[in-house]
Amino acid sequence: MAEDVRTALNTAGMAEFEKKHPKPDCVLLDSEYCSMGRMIGVKACRAAGYTYYDAVILLELVPEEGVTIDDVTAFENRLRRSGLTREEIVSDPMYAKITAAFDKAIDKALAAGPCLIHDRATVEMITSRGYTCNYVLMYATDMDAKVARARISPLYADLTDREEIIGKIREEDNIRSNYHMAHSDTVWGDRNIYDLCINSEALGRDFAGEMLAGLMK
User: Fold this and answer.
1) Segments making up each domain of the chain, as ranges
2) Closest by alpha carbon to 76, among 216, 178, 199, 5?
3) pTM here?
4) Cys-Cys link to 65, which of 86, 101, 168, 197 (CB 3.0-4.6 A)?
């Protein structure tokens, strides 16, 4: 039955209708490859006064762990294919060492103040430590635009075949999905698990950054 919102019941004072959004201690940002997620995350952090962390920056917090970005790259190259099981991932000899390093770095990042963490943490991890978080997905819908962005990356600048580049984009997403699967029972990229999903293709990089910053203020 249709309702006329103009004559709806007065909801004043009803908690179910008036929940306030608290400023989160942490924003977890998952992003599809070439959706400009990291650029948008950095922009949002600058606007909202948060500290931005991704794999490279997190590892700089824990040099004593002896894990380098080359170690992470070598491990993640084994996560490029689809169809991997959690057991296959966690049994990799480098899995425990890399995970321990990132977990320690995330603890340091959280203790330092409000932050955005790209792609290395889960909601379960953050909330189990007593922090609040919002979970955000950045995605893009125009494959031609993704291909153009991938060609700018030093990783794929030498590739000229469109289908080969698309394959690499999908492999990069497999890495993120597989790493997440090893740490959570949720499915990376499933729109139902996120508090906010942003189509950076529709909104553009700058406005997407403003929208994300609004969540953090």
Assistant:
1) 23-216
2) 178
3) 0.92
4) 101
User: What's phi and psi for 52, nearest 5 deg?
Assistant: -95, 135
* Predicted pLDDT of residue 1: 66
Q: Does domain 23-216 have CATH number 1.10.10.10?
A: no
Structure tokens at 66: 């002896």
pLDDT tens for each residue of 91-103: 999 999 999 999 9
**Parallel, antiparallel, or unpaired: how do β-strands 26-31 and 51-53 relate?**
unpaired
Q: Which secondary-structure segment (H or E) carries 197? A: strand 196-199
- For 28, phi then psi, to 5°, come to -95, 125
Amino acid at 101: A
Cα separation of 122 and 144, whole Å? 30
**Residue burial 38-62, b: 16+ Cβ < 10 Å; e: rest:** bbbbbbbbeebebebbbbeebbebb
